[in-house]
Amino acid sequence: MGSQEVSTVDWQGKYVTVAGLGVSGIPAARALHERGALVTVVNDGDDERARAQAAELEALGITVRLGDGATLPPSTELVVTAPGWQPDKPLFLAAAEAGVPVWGDVELAWRLRGDNGRKAAPWLAVTGTNGKTTTVRMLASILEAAGLRTAAVGNIGVSLLDAVLGETEYDVLAVELSSYQLHWAPSLRAHSAAVLNLAPDHLDWHGSMEAYAADKGRVYEGNTVACVYNVADPATEDLVREADVEEGCRAIGFTLGAPGPSQLGVVDGILVDRAFVANRQKQAQELAEVGDVDPPAPHNIANALAAAALARAFGVEPAAVRDGLRAFRPDAHRIEHVADIGEVAYVDDSKATNTHATEASLAAYDSIVWIAGGLAKGATFDELVIGAAKRLRGVVLMGADRALIHEALTRHAPEVPVVDLDRTDTGAMSEAVARAAELARPGDTVLLAPACASMDMFTNYNKRGEAFADAVRARADESA
User: Fold this and answer.
1) Most buried among 52, 70, 106, 313, by the most CB within 10 A?
2) Does the pTM of the predicted model rise above 0.90?
């Protein structure tokens, strides 16, 4: 199916099972019910919140089955799943045995776009291990600067179903897609797409790095204009080579160095385009300055180049790239500067929940007191420590799996002082900031980049970042 074609399904009387209540399951159940499908929602949990959600759906005539997400309801013709449900769940094994297809919320949104009688907006899609949300929001800012009606949607928190079925008629959508979502989206065909990077993550869900990469690579399938890849990460270009794309679709690289033909890159502090110009062998188009990107850390410049490549693939003029990047402000807890105290900068990158993100974060500063630790999720830290050792003034560790980082530091950076906080309560953050301040010298950066998930101590990475910021601000008030 071509990228601009809209798939139509007669939902009337079709038996559909929706797996999971929540941000994707509830909109999916409602949308399918409104189109005449006979919907049954199954959910593993049976708590107070689930019962309240179930009551709302049951009032519409939707069947809800709580506490049993394993059994395939009889007569099911299609399963629509929340993206986080693992492929080896008994429900999906039963569906496969019965020959019942399984779609994710992204697949359903793709199939329903244009269902309201309006022109289906093209999708510019972004995936990768790290940087997805920032890149998608940069892209949306650029598209808005070009005067286009757009929204940042998908894994970013705004439901794709709401976007494609809502009242607003968009010109184009900036879509963040996780590996989970891509796994369950077999017919998705984007206008253009980018894989920002690939590093081991969610391997417990996918089963192997090869399976994880293959699901990421699905984002390139059927692209019509551009497959955007990271020159510094050859695995992303490999995925482009393996993709089955529309005739005329181009491979477009982005690099922090000087770009070759069909690439975007950086020359003397200027972001330049040698892909979407009349003579890419000899010409380069200036797009923006490095200083237009907030913050101008190397990995964030890479995000900006990827966003610019997708925007240029959609025909956006250079001035809109510049204006969109200037207007963009990063989300909280993503290399967020909190305060300067005594010529020491305090930076919150609580979103760095894996080693790949933390590697990029550590590379942005010259002299660092690093606050790290949490749930390792099976990660190892030797390569991370080896790469960062020369930048480390000191390290403060906390959290359940801090010993794994400590062991890597002992092996590869034995001269770096380490403070090991033997506690996993939320109050540990205040002590971590205090101990980091003791290690820091003027010109240093105290960086929260945990390289681990937060759930051993905090509800999520946002709460962890807020605890850090609160501790830093309290310290700033004391020193004022």
Assistant:
1) 106
2) no
